[in-house]
Write a structure and sequence with these properties.
The protein is α/β, with parallel strands linked by helices. The chain is built from 5 helices and 19 strands.
Length: 273
């Protein structure tokens, strides 16, 4: 995980960067254009290092620091669209679908949110051969299709929701709340993740790393009904005379967990299950 922030006014232009490796973080700061100076601190656990990193980053932002070159999903569409075949095949050899057009980014990028559905119809693949930081989430709510995403280096995001897209995150991935893969047409391939909760629902996943808890929406429906019994909009009682069971509407469930407050509350509930 890495956060890089800059501060600029009439008198100064300085940077502040924090990198987390396992249970240790390194802070580097100084004038932009210099190497700056660094300090390293070790914690008992990875979780404590990440928690402290989050607090320090938020404190810097409150003081006026910001992510340089911050972009939105719409800003990505202003970038050059190229033929996928013009890139080195080693970047996209994992892709199983047939794709033609791509946006290729080779420098670190900071996004408020990465909504792959908003890129559909414009490009087939987004390849980021650099570090990706997303304030909110990486999102693909369409189950039947979606723009493929490949990130070769580190990713930091609040959540990841995958549907019909092929998503491959090959570096170190830090997800603050949850990863959710739903429906069966997409692929979530995350090589090395730190995440509290992974949820799956009839979805092809290859997620490896440090995962506190993992749930299958279909197999563990009773758990979610119990935790969300006051949220009946996406929980259906399909009782008959001979049996009683529940099912959860995936589309409505996604809209529920996209909300920051709902997602945080669900995370707390699931972690104590």
């Amino acid at each position: 995980m890495e956060n890089y922030l800059e501060y600029k006014d009439e008198k100064s232009h300085k940077f502040w960067q924090i990198e987390v490796h396992d249970n240790t973080y390194t802070v580097t700061y100084g004038k932009v254009g210099t190497k700056g100076q660094s300090k390293t601190k070790e914690f008992e656990t990875v979780e404590k290092a990440l928690s402290e990193t989050e607090k320090m980053s938020k404190a810097k932002i409150k003081k006026g620091y910001s992510y340089p070159n911050r972009k939105t999903t719409k800003d990505l569409l202003k970038l050059e669209i190229i033929d996928l075949s013009s890139l080195n095949e080693s970047l996209y050899y994992k892709l199983e679908g047939d794709y033609e057009t791509a946006i290729f980014i080779s420098e670190d990028i900071f996004l408020d949110e990465l909504d792959l559905d908003k890129l559909s119809g414009h490009i087939d693949v987004l390849i980021i051969d650099a570090n990706l930081t997303v304030s909110k989430g990486i999102l693909n709510t369409e189950g039947d299709y979606g723009v493929a995403l490949i990130v070769t280096k580190d990713v930091t995001s609040d959540y990841i929701i995958g549907g019909g897209s092929e998503i491959y995150l090959d570096g170190n991935t830090t997800v603050k709340s949850l990863v959710y893969g739903y429906y069966n047409h997409g692929i979530l391939g995350i090589s090395n993740v730190i995440v509290p909760i992974v949820l799956t629902d009839d979805h092809q996943t290859g997620i490896y790393g440090k995962i506190e808890k993992k749930f299958d929406i279909f197999e563990d429906t009773e758990i979610f009904v119990e935790k969300l019994k006051n949220k009946p909009s996406f929980i259906f009682d399909e009782s008959t005379e001979n049996e009683a069971y529940y099912s959860i509407d995936s589309d409505d469930f996604i809209q529920y967990i996209i909300d920051d407050k709902n997602r945080t509350e669900l995370l707390k509930q699931l972690l104590i299950t």
